[in-house]
Amino acid sequence: MLIYLPIAEISVNALVLLGIGGGVGMLSGMFGVGGGFLITPLLFFIGIPPAVAVATGANQVVASSISGVLAHLRRKTVDLRMGTVLLVGGLIGSTGGIWLFRWLSALGQVDLFVQLAYVLFLGVIGILMLQESLRAWYRSTKPNVPRRKLHKHTWVHSLPLKMKFRVSGLYISVIPPVLVGMAVGVLSAVMGVGGGFIMVPAMIYMLGMPTKVVVGTSLYQIIFVTGYTTVAHAMTSYSVDVLLAFFLIIGGVIGAQIGTQIGVRLKAEQLRILLALLVIAVCIKVALDLLVQPSELYSIRIVGR
Amino acid sequence: MRVLLLAMLLVSVLPARANEIIGALSQNRVALTANFSGSEILLFGAIRRDPLEAYFEDPTENRPFDVVVVIEGPRQTVAVWRKERRAGIWMNTDSVTLTSVPSFYAVATTAPLGDIITPETDREFRISAPQAIDGTQAHETDPQRQVFSEALQRIREQADQYQSLDRFVFLDREILFRANVRLPANLTEGAYTTRMYLVRDGGVVSQFRTAIFVRKDGLERWIYQLAYDHPFLYGLLALAIALIAGWGASALFRFVRSG
């Protein structure tokens, strides 16, 4: 079933879009990841222009995060104060990212930049995840290995502008969370992702937040930043395709429900290894596109769009 | 003397008219809707022969008519980029901006274009795709530009946006002609000028112009206009859809599971 996407201006099979949304939704249900970092490169592979893929990806993240945010708010596992500090950084970062995106588009280098960013982030995250999950698997087979210490006193704790975060039980400077938020905001604008994969480890290891509030707080920040990014992209580059987003969202919510059911029944450690391998595979595919000589060296861009 | 008078009478009575081409389209509107997957357009018409010429024509002399049909989509400014290997990575390095390039271009003919029109005619009427692209570029003979303009043609031909349809026009007894042209799914909105040329001895004898109007329709049109005319509202709409769909679906699943 072919549908014509009004903003991307190409015809795509609706089943392919539902499949991408559903597949990524299933993974996010199984592993609790947002999945934006898989949706955007998959949209590249089917020929959606990168600008549309990124902006619509950000829109899709809003949909996949909302039910999580509401659940965490109900359970009171959101540090609203920390979330707001992260959000301030996120909005600044996203604005900068939008500006960077436009500048790179004008230079004709936005595809390259987005692809390089994906290779870098997917590569690093894939390897870290693989390492983590292999270690967890190893631990689960040998229960006597001692656990690693989570909280350490680091340079983060000696910065000025300190603030009390009661829910997280922290008294730290606002500079590191603002910086983390900014980095995530830039990623959201340039890559069309939520950025949870960066924020969650940063919150645990850098800020020393308790794991209980990490997911809820990061989702709280993500939904506002990706929402802002969606509107900003719509206003500056007219590149949000609601029809494309709609099919991805429908596929995504159905996939997520199935994924949650599967995730409950299967062994988490081994699944995590599979997810890590998948992330690395997507990274290699994007990297190959950059390294192998393309069959057509020329490309056309319509000016003023 | 009597013969001459008769001939003069004939000339004055018959309408003074040269050979003429008259054309029509099976449809002059194409609506881009959500399930648009391309459209087939039938272009047809007739050749009105100059009655005097037809009467006095020497049947042994073979001067056949040919028909050339051109459909040209709205013009755009495009940047053509070339990739080069830098530090092991294939990246865009050079670009050439071509102003006023047709977004769609189809040339259908009764015989190979080069056999029926002279290069001069091609240049004058801008019939072949290279002429349609380069004719507007102030006749620059920059070889670099040439390479980029050829690349543009090659890419658009692969996407069926430029079509060269030799022998796709069927001419029936030198009077009636028809051609089928397939418009692909990836069309740009706007007026598609349609030119029909009657060709003889390498030159254009007569031409006929009309247009096909391609526009987004229904939901597509509404989305597109909102996105460009009210981008802020559109962004909020996108947000609202995401929030409602995301929350609604999970609420529905919860309800289904609990009930």
Query: Stretches of chain A where pLDDT falls below 50 for ≥5 residues?
Result: none
Q: Roughly what is the average pLDDT of chain A, rounded to an integer?
A: 83
Distance between the termini of chain A: 27 Å
Strand order of the largest sheet of chain A: 1-2
Taking the sheet with the most strands of chain B, its summary is:
6 strands, mixed
Tally the structural domains of chain A: 1
Structural class by secondary-structure content of chain A:
mainly alpha
DSSP helix fraction of chain A: over 70%
Name the pair of protein chains with the most residues at their interface, and give those residue counts. Answer: A-B, 56 and 58 residues
CATH C-level name of the largest domain in chain B = Mainly Beta
CATH names the topology of the largest domain in chain B as Immunoglobulin-like
Please tally the helical runs of chain B, counting DSSP H or I stretches of 4 or more residues. Answer: 8
Total number of helices of chain A: 10
Shape of chain A, please? globular
Task: Please give the largest β-sheet of chain A.
Answer: 2 strands, antiparallel
Write the layout of secondary structure elements.
The complex is a heterodimer of chains A (305) and B (259).
Chain A: E1 2-5, E2 10-13, H1 14-31, H2 36-45, H3 50-74, H4 80-107, H5 110-141, E3 162-165, E4 170-173, H6 175-191, H7 196-206, H8 211-236, H9 242-265, H10 268-291, E5 298-302
Antiparallel strand pairs in A: 1-2, 3-4
Helix pairs in contact in A: 1-9, 2-3, 3-6, 3-8, 3-9, 4-6, 4-8, 5-10, 6-7, 6-8, 7-8
Chain B: H1 2-13, E1 20-25, E2 29-32, E3 39-48, H2 51-56, E4 66-72, E5 75-86, E6 89-102, E7 105-109, H3 113-116, H4 119-125, H5 129-134, H6 143-158, E8 162-165, E9 169-172, E10 176-183, E11 190-200, E12 203-216, H7 218-229, H8 231-258
Parallel strand pairs in B: 2-12, 7-8
Antiparallel strand pairs in B: 1-3, 3-10, 4-7, 4-11, 5-6, 9-10, 11-12
